[in-house]
């Protein structure tokens, strides 16, 4: 329980929250993960489902989360519990908060390893670049960097310490300033890479790969991956955005912020795709290479570009900064919980969370060397952390959030927080109550192999289910208010 009754810290400037939320959203997910899973799941159709997930599920969930945070003014656990109590519902629902907080911690445990790769590449570029010019050379550099646990552990430890140092200092300082120059810088570097790709071959294939829709190419595993990635890239269902929302002043517009963040995040991801794949196609690499994809392909592009080492250096610096503005958001939920419930100061909370994080992330780091064969059902520890969070915890957590918002809590809560014009509010309610849950459930059913959904063949009865849900939902919800009568 919170004992102190001091008002919660709030974001200072008008743009702080937008910057911080964008900083959280734009990260390794956009530049490292999006290209490599797009490669794994075959391109265009995956990208389309991903975009649908961002705007039909991601944006409404983000609005829900920010509202829950601002209403409950606390860590995910506390905020959800307060909001649920306010509506007179059982505290079982705070499980949604717990799940989110734990999920954020799990993600960070493998995120610092990937961020460590980026830091290591900054160092490589600083100390004379990478030798060799072929694909095999790049693969060898990446593999060598992973092979020694002391080397790889050094970099992930560095990221852990840097993250804890920043969050220990406080909420706003640092985040705001670093995001405001880093984002434009990152976009500029991506533009440069895209222009380079235009002239060095592979660009046409890239555009075809990313944007040509081939309905047959998407597996149900791919659909689940697209949904999971939509949550991941927007930092949803893992406490980050909810906790940032808890520092949001009452006057800020939640809807506009959520859409702004989603658009910025999508632009960066698509730009990253356009920047990265030309080098892959021009050099005959396999787009399905896996997690090492950008660390093998991009150095190849830098290698053959004038001033390549300099540009490479700048690129990996930006990437590392983008990773840090994301990693600090992932631990913020835990920190806020420790401070509010365990009476720790921010630095104390940062160091205690940091030690646990370091232990778990070290295990994840070992998956790339001595622990490569510590596997369970064919996945090592790193893969499990990624799999459990993206394919299970985040979609389920998101489902919990929308059910909470759509059916459990009183309508006033969100009408107040979102303060949208009535028609837009009705759209939001319609999305969280019907579209997002149906989308999440269908993708799950698909992924469990219970039924193979193909949109082209199954849309009539999917639409039918939606209609039944709407009719039933509207008829059964006099207590919580009808979406159609939302005002
Ligand atoms: N969205 C970030 C990215 O794309 C990652 C991230 C930050 C995140 N905070 C999160 C993912 C919280 C899940 C949950 O790199």
Automatic annotation (TrEMBL):
Main location: membrane
Claim: Isomerase is one of the keywords in the record: no
CDD domains the UniProt entry points to: SLC6sbd_Tyt1-Like (cd10336)
Keyword hit for Iron-sulfur: no
Keyword list, A-Z: Membrane, Transmembrane, Transmembrane helix, Transport
Membrane topology value: Multi-pass membrane protein
Residue ranges crossing the lipid bilayer per the database entry: 15-32, 44-63, 95-119, 152-171, 183-204, 224-247, 259-281, 301-328, 349-372, 392-409, 430-453, 459-477
Source organism superkingdom: Bacteria
Subcellular location: Membrane
NCBIfam families (alphabetical): Na_transp
Protein name per Swiss-Prot or TrEMBL: Sodium-dependent transporter
Source organism: Halomonas piscis
């Amino acid at each position: 329980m919170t004992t102190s009754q001091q008002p919660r810290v709030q974001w200072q400037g008008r743009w702080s929250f937008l910057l911080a939320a964008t900083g959280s959203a734009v990260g390794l997910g956009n530049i490292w993960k999006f290209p490599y899973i797009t490669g794994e799941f075959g391109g265009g159709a995956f990208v389309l489902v991903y975009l649908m997930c961002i705007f039909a599920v991601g944006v409404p969930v983000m609005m829900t989360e920010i509202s829950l945070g601002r209403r409950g003014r606390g860590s995910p656990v506390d905020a959800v519990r307060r909001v649920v109590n306010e509506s007179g519902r059982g505290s079982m629902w705070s499980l949604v908060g717990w799940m989110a907080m734990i999920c954020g911690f799990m993600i960070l445990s493998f995120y610092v390893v990937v961020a460590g790769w980026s830091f290591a590449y900054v160092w490589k570029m600083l100390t004379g670049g990478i030798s060799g010019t072929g694909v095999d050379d790049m693969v060898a550099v990446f593999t060598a960097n992973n092979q020694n646990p002391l080397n790889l552990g050094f970099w992930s430890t560095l990221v852990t310490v840097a993250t804890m140092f920043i969050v220990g200092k406080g909420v706003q300082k640092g985040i705001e300033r670093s995001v405001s120059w880093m984002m434009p810088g990152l976009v500029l570097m991506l533009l440069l890479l895209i222009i380079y790709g235009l002239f060095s071959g592979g660009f046409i294939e890239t555009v075809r790969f990313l944007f040509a829709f081939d309905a047959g190419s998407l597996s149900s595993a791919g659909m689940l991956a697209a949904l999971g990635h939509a949550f991941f890239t927007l930092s949803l269902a893992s406490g980050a955005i909810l906790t940032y929302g808890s520092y949001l002043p009452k006057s800020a517009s939640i809807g506009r912020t959520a859409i702004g963040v989603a658009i910025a995040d999508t632009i960066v991801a698509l730009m990253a795709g356009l920047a990265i794949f030309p080098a892959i196609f021009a050099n005959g690499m396999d787009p399905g290479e896996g997690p090492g994809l950008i660390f093998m392909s991009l150095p190849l592009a830098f290698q053959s570009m004038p001033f390549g080492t300099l540009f490479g250096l700048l690129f990996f610096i930006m990437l590392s900064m983008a990773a840090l503005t994301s990693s600090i958001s992932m631990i913020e939920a835990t920190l806020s919980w420790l401070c509010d419930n365990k009476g720790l100061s921010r630095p104390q909370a940062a160091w205690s969370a940091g030690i646990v994080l370091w232990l778990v992330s070290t295990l994840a780091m070992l998956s790339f060397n001595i622990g490569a064969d510590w596997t369970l059902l064919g996945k090592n520890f790193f893969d499990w952390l990624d799999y459990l969070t993206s394919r299970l915890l985040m979609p389920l957590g998101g489902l919990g959030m929308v059910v909470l918002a759509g059916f459990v809590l009183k309508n006033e809560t969100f009408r107040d927080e979102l303060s949208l014009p009535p028609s837009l509010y009705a759209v939001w309610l319609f999305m969280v109550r019907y579209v997002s849950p149906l989308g999440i459930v269908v993708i799950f059913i698909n992924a469990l192999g219970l039924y193979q959904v193909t949109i082209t063949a199954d849309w009539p009865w999917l639409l039918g289910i939606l209609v039944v849900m709407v009719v039933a939902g509207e008829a059964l919800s006099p207590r919580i208010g009808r979406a159609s009568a939302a005002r």
